[in-house]
Write a structure and sequence with these properties.
The complex is a heterodimer of chains A (about 290) and B (about 325).
Chain A: H1 2-31, H2 39-56, H3 61-87, H4 92-114, E1 130-132, E2 137-139, H5 140-162, H6 164-174, H7 176-181, H8 186-207, H9 218-221, H10 223-233, H11 238-258, H12 265-277
Antiparallel strand pairs in A: 1-2
Helix pairs in contact in A: 1-5, 1-8, 1-10, 1-11, 2-3, 2-4, 2-8, 3-8, 5-6, 6-8, 10-11, 11-12
Chain B: H1 2-7, H2 9-40, H3 45-68, H4 76-91, H5 97-119, H6 124-144, H7 146-149, H8 174-196, H9 198-208, H10 210-215, H11 220-246, H12 256-269, H13 274-294, H14 296-313, H15 318-332
Helix pairs in contact in B: 2-8, 3-8, 3-11, 3-12, 3-13, 4-5, 4-6, 4-11, 5-11, 8-11, 9-11, 12-13, 13-14
Classes of the chains: A mainly alpha (about 290), B mainly alpha (about 325).
Chain lengths: ~290, ~325
C-alpha cells in the first residue's frame, strides 16, 4: 500500500512536470503548426538562468522562477521574429531540421559558457521538507509541483475558453485567413501564444529541475520525450495533453520503481501501443 | 516529363541515352573518388570506411524519405540490426565476410519490414514519433540483451576471416575500405535501377499524392513496405560493413543521434537524389572529423548553424544549389 501510494504521488508529480513543459509545445504544434523541437532548449535556458539567480546572485526561489521565465521569453522573442516566422507553413521535415539546428546551437553555446556539469537550483527551506498530510508524509516539493500543474491547467483553460484573447486564439487556429479578414491581428496572436508557450516551458524547466536535471544535453535528452507526449495527447488539446502526461508519467514511474533494469523500455512500448490505437493522439483533431 | 512525352519517341530515346551516359559518368566519378581516397589518405582509411558505411545508411534513408515521402528519425534501427546480426554471427563462428554482409542485409530487411509495418499505420507527426519510439526500443533491447550484444560495453572481439580466403583484414583497413567502396558502387548501381523502375516511379507518385495513386488502383501500403524492405537491406549492408571494418559493434549504431545525423546529411546533400545522399555524407563527416578534433561542442554549434542556414537558404540541399547554378548558367548561354 505504501509503495503504491508513493508511486502514485511521484507519478502524479512527474506527470505534472511533463504537462507544464509539454502544454506549451502542444500549443505551438496545434496552433501554429510548428514542430518546435527546440522547446526543451527553452526549458533548459530557464533552468540555467534560475540556477544563476538562485546560487550565484543569492536571490530567492520565487525571484529565480520569475527572472527565468522573463529572461527566456526575452531570448525567445527575437528567435520567433527572425527564425520561426520563416518556417510557419513549411513542411514538417523543414521545421524539424531547423529546430534541431537551433537545439544544437543552444547546447553548444550553453556548454561553452557554463561547462558540462550539472546545475542545481537550491530549493527554499519550506519546499525541501516533508509535509504531514495526516496519514503519511509527502515531500513538499512534490505537492508544490502538483499544485503548479493544476494551476497551469486551470489558467490555460480559463484563458482559452473564457477570455476574448482565447476567442481570437481559437478563431485563428480554425481559420487563420478568415480571422485575419475579420480584424483579428493574427501575427500578434501568434507572437503572444509563442511567448506563452515559451514561458510555460521555462516555468516547467525550473519547477521540474528535480525530475529532469539541468545540464547541456537536457535539450536533446528530453526532446524526444516532450515530442512523444504531445503527439500521444493530440497536438493543441489541453485535456489530451493532461491525460497523456498522467498516463505516460504513471507508466514511466511504475516501470522505474518495479523494474528499474528496463529503463525507458515501458515508456516507448506504451507509446507505440497508444499511437497505433489512436493515430491522432488521445484527443487530437481530425486533419 | 510532359515535354518528353509530346516530343515523340525519338527525342525520348535520345534523352534516355543521355541519362545513361550521365549515370555511367557519375558512377565512374564515385569510383575515382574512392580510388583517390585510397591513394591520398592511406592513414585515414578507417575514417573513410566509416564514411562509406554511413553513406549506405543515408542512401537507405533517402529511399524512404526522399522517394516515398515518409519522414523517419529511426533509420539507425535498420543499420544497427545489420551491425548486430553480423557481429553476433561473427562471434558465433560465421567468419566469412561476404556471408556476414548477407546476414546483415537480411536482418536489415526483417527490421525494415517490422518498422514499416508499424510506421505506415500512422501519418505525419505520429509517424515521426513512431519511428523515434522504434529506434529507442531497439536501443533499449540491444542494451538489455547484454548476453548477446555486450550491452553498453559493445560487442567486441569480431575475428573476420580473410576475404575470399585471400585478402586479410589488415591493421590499416585497406581490405575493408576496398570492400566498402565496391559494395557502395554495387548498391548504388542497383538503386539507380530501382528508382528508375516503374516501382520507383510509383513510390514517387505516392510521395506526391497518395490519394490519387490509390484512386488509380494501386495499393499504397505494400509498395511502401517493399521500399522499407529494400531500404532495410541497404542499411543492414552498411551496418555489417561497419561491424566488419571496426570489429566492434557499439550501442551508438542503433541510436537516435545516428538517425538524426543521417537525416541532417541527407537534407544537406538534397532529398530524392542518390548523389545528394553521397555528397551530404562526405561533406558532413569530413567537417565533423576536422572540427570535432578541436572541440566537440563547437562542432554542435556549427552543425546547428549549418542546419539553420541550409533550411533558410537552400531548402533543397546543396545538390539543388548546384542544379540551380547550372540551370541559371544554361539559361544565360
Amino acid at each position: 500500500m505504501q509503495t503504491i501510494l508513493s508511486i502514485a504521488i511521484d507519478a502524479l508529480a512527474f506527470g505534472m512536470v511533463l504537462f507544464i513543459i509539454c502544454i506549451g509545445l502542444s500549443l505551438t504544434m496545434g496552433l501554429m503548426r510548428v514542430v518546435n523541437l527546440a522547446h526543451g532548449a527553452f526549458a533548459m535556458i530557464a533552468g540555467y538562468i534560475a540556477s544563476y539567480v538562485a546560487r550565484d546572485l543569492g536571490l530567492g526561489y520565487a525571484a529565480a522562477i520569475l527572472l527565468a521565465v522573463f529572461g527566456t521569453i526575452v531570448i525567445a522573442i527575437p528567435l520567433e521574429r527572425f527564425l520561426y516566422r520563416r518556417i510557419y507553413g513549411s513542411p514538417e521535415l523543414i521545421q524539424v531540421l531547423m529546430t534541431i539546428g537551433l537545439t544544437f546551437c543552444v547546447i553548444g553555446i550553453t556548454n561553452y559558457f557554463f561547462g558540462p556539469t550539472l546545475k542545481t537550483i537550491p530549493l527554499p527551506h519550506a519546499l525541501s521538507q516533508p509535509v504531514d498530510v495526516g496519514f503519511r508524509t509527502i515531500a513538499a516539493h512534490r505537492l508544490f509541483v502538483i499544485a503548479c500543474g493544476a494551476v497551469v491547467a486551470g489558467g490555460l483553460w480559463y484563458l482559452i475558453e473564457r477570455t476574448s484573447f482565447g476567442i481570437k486564439l481559437r478563431a485563428t487556429v480554425d481559420n487563420a485567413a478568415m480571422s485575419d479578414a475579420l480584424g483579428v491581428r493574427t501575427q500578434v496572436v501568434y507572437a503572444v501564444s509563442f511567448a506563452i508557450a515559451v514561458g510555460l516551458a521555462a516555468f516547467g524547466g525550473v519547477v521540474g529541475a528535480e525530475f529532469l536535471p539541468i545540464e547541456p544535453y537536457y535539450a536533446l535528452r528530453y526532446m524526444v520525450t516532450f515530442l512523444v507526449v504531445v503527439s500521444v495527447g493530440g497536438a493543441g488539446s489541453i485535456p489530451g495533453a493532461l491525460i497523456a502526461c498522467l498516463v505516460l508519467g504513471l507508466v514511466d514511474t511504475t516501470g522505474r520503481y518495479l523494474m528499474p533494469a528496463f529503463g525507458n523500455f515501458f515508456f516507448y512500448a506504451a507509446v507505440i501501443v497508444i499511437v497505433c490505437l489512436f493515430p491522432r493522439g488521445f484527443l487530437g483533431r481530425a486533419q | 516529363m510532359h515535354i518528353t512525352a509530346q516530343a515523340g519517341p525519338v527525342s525520348a530515346r535520345l534523352q534516355a541515352k543521355g541519362r545513361w551516359w550521365r549515370d555511367a559518368a557519375g558512377i565512374a566519378l564515385i569510383a575515382s573518388c574512392g580510388a583517390a581516397g585510397y591513394w591520398l589518405f592511406p592513414d585515414n582509411l578507417a575514417l573513410l570506411t566509416r564514411i562509406v558505411a554511413v553513406a549506405l545508411l543515408v542512401l537507405s534513408m533517402d529511399l524512404v524519405v526522399g522517394y516515398c515521402g515518409v519522414a523517419t528519425l529511426g533509420q539507425a534501427a535498420l543499420f544497427g540490426a545489420g551491425a548486430y546480426a553480423a557481429g553476433i554471427a561473427c562471434v558465433n563462428g560465421v567468419t566469412e565476410p561476404m556471408t556476414l554482409i548477407a546476414i546483415g542485409a537480411l536482418s536489415g530487411i526483417v527490421a525494415g519490414l517490422v518498422m514499416g509495418a508499424v510506421m505506415l499505420r500512422a501519418h505525419g507527426l505520429a509517424q515521426l514519433v513512431l519511428s523515434i519510439a522504434i529506434v529507442q526500443l531497439f536501443h533499449e533491447a540491444a542494451n538489455k540483451a547484454s548476453a548477446y550484444t555486450g550491452g553498453s560495453d559493445g560487442l567486441a572481439g569480431l575475428m573476420v576471416s580473410p576475404l575470399f580466403g585471400i585478402f586479410e583484414f589488415d591493421l590499416w583497413g585497406r581490405t575493408a575500405y576496398l570492400l566498402g567502396i565496391v559494395l557502395l558502387l554495387l548498391v548504388f548501381v542497383v538503386l539507380k535501377f530501382v528508382v528508375a523502375s516503374p516501382f520507383g516511379m510509383l513510390c514517387r507518385g505516392i510521395k506526391q499524392d497518395p490519394v490519387r495513386i490509390r484512386a488509380m488502383g494501386s495499393f499504397v501500403f505494400p509498395v511502401l513496405l517493399k521500399m522499407f524492405a529494400i531500404s532495410g537491406a541497404v542499411a543492414g549492408t552498411g551496418g555489417a560493413l561497419a561491424a566488419i571494418s571496426t570489429q566492434v559493434v557499439g550501442l551508438d549504431s542503433v541510436s537516435f543521434e545516428l538517425s538524426a545525423n543521417a537525416l541532417v546529411m541527407l537534407v544537406l546533400g538534397g532529398l530524392g537524389t542518390l548523389y545528394g545522399a553521397l555528397i551530404g555524407t562526405v561533406i558532413f563527416m569530413g567537417f565533423e572529423h576536422v572540427v570535432s578534433a578541436i572541440n566537440p561542442f563547437h562542432w554542435m554549434t556549427m552543425v546547428g548553424a549549418l542546419l539553420i542556414a541550409v533550411v533558410l537558404a537552400a531548402p533543397g540541399g546543396l545538390g539543388s544549389l548546384v542544379d540551380k547554378v547550372s540551370a541559371s548558367r544554361g539559361g544565360k548561354a
